[in-house]
Design brief:
This is L-threonine aldolase. It comes from Proteiniclasticum ruminis. InterPro entries: ArAA_b-elim_lyase/Thr_aldolase, Low_specificity_L-TA-like, PyrdxlP-dep_Trfase, PyrdxlP-dep_Trfase_major, PyrdxlP-dep_Trfase_small. GO terms for molecular function: L-allo-threonine aldolase activity. About 40% of the residues lie in helices and about 15% in strands. It is of the alpha/beta class. It has two domains: about 100 residues, Alpha-Beta Complex (Aspartate Aminotransferase, domain 1), CATH 3.90.1150; about 230 residues, Aspartate Aminotransferase, domain 2 (3-Layer(aba) Sandwich), CATH 3.40.640. The strands form four sheets. The protein has a seven-stranded mixed beta sheet with strand order 2-10-9-8-7-3-4, sandwiched between helices. A three-stranded antiparallel beta sheet has the order 11-12-14. It is globular and about 65 Å long.
Length: about 350
């Protein structure tokens, strides 16, 4: 990469191996269901997550919204965290696409309180109430937090007791699995559907995969068509997705780099890193330095070949990924040390 890009793990480029696989991928017409590379990607994703079937979709937002549409009926209510990606970063699409009501609960760095989830479920058949149609969880969360297996299991048990499906926004599911040191299917078992992103730390150029039961995926395939997500010779992209699945095994390297980055960053006077929140590949920090100008720092870093976002209410975030090596981290640290001297 030309720049050292710390803005997100969404900025990753396809690796050279991915590009070669894309160039030689067998393709067909995926709407007809005869693109063999897509079929292989879907089967492999379902196998890894312990589900019956899977469906390739254009993006993570598409995967979440498709799942909500497939699980629910208009006027249903869905339960989810107030800081979840679906609420905070999907442009209100759940209201437009599925016509459902959202019931948001406080989430402790992404974890929902099972007691609050149970209280939020609409019980009985009172004509004044919407029906609870879905519970949505997210791990790893956009705050970098990873929900515990115990937390996910508790919510799953509540959902089953009331015959409500659970959707998992698992955009960074493999990061969560790496942090917990478990197979991804151990997390996925607590959800009826999962949306898994291939284009973040896994380096694929585009795409997500939705997994679930055969019945759910058959219905989702029809809804994908309705939403304009039916794709043709998309095996070219699925080939990159297959390589991305293999790249899940190296995510611990990004996590270790994030820990190193955060610990060294914390040593720079004026920078305070939330070290206890470094669980995956994200570092959150604040800057308290007399005369500090955020816009000046962002511009200075760009002049030195480093891309970073401004703060979110005073909190900055750096994200490590395949192209943020230990050597590049040291370069960034040196530039920051000099800047804050």
């Amino acid at each position: 990469m030309k720049f050292i890009d710390l803005r997100s793990d969404t900025v990753t480029h396809p690796t050279e191996k991915m590009r070669q696989l894309m160039a030689s991928a067998p393709v067909g017409d995926d709407v007809y269901g005869d693109d063999e590379t897509v079929i292989k990607l879907e089967e492999e994703t379902a196998r890894i997550l312990g589900k019956e079937a899977a469906l390739f979709v254009p993006s993570g937002v598409f995967g979440n919204q498709l799942s909500i549409l497939t699980h629910t009926e208009r006027t249903n209510e869905i339960i989810l965290g107030e800081n979840s990606h679906i609420i905070a970063h999907e442009a209100g699409s759940v209201a437009l696409i599925s016509n459902v009501q959202t019931r948001t609960l406080k989430d402790d760095l992404g974890e929902l309180d099972p007691k609050e989830v149970q209280k939020a479920v609409r019980k009985g058949e009172d004509i004044h109430f919407p029906k609870t149609g879905l519970i949505c969880v997210e791990t790893a969360h956009s705050t970098g937090n990873v929900a515990s297996l115990e937390n996910l299991k508790s919510i799953s048990e509540i959902a089953k007791a009331y015959e409500i499906p659970v959707h998992l926004d698992g955009a960074r599911l493999f990061n969560a699995a790496a942090h917990l040191k478990v197979d991804a299917k151990e997390i996925a078992q607590y959800a009826d559907s999962i949306s898994l992103c291939l284009s973040k730390g896994l380096c694929a150029p585009v795409g997500s995969v939705v997994s679930g039961s055969k019945e759910f995926i058959a219905k989702a395939r029809k809804n994908r068509k309705i939403l304009g997500g039916g794709m043709r010779q998309v095996g070219i992209l699925a080939a990159a997705g297959l390589e991305a699945l293999d790249m899940r095994h190296r995510l611990n390297e990004d996590h270790e780099n994030a820990r190193y980055f955060g610990e060294e960053l914390h040593k720079i006077p004026g920078i305070s890193v939330r070290l206890d929140e470094i669980k995956i590949n994200m570092i959150f920090f604040t800057i308290d330095k007399e005369g500090f100008q955020e816009s000046d720092l962002v511009a200075h870093m760009k002049e030195h070949g480093i891309l970073m976002n401004g703060s979110d209410e005073g909190v900055f975030r750096f994200v490590t990924h395949y192209y943020v090596t230990r050597e590049r981290i040291n370069q960034v640290l040196q530039i920051l040390r000099e800047y804050f001297q």
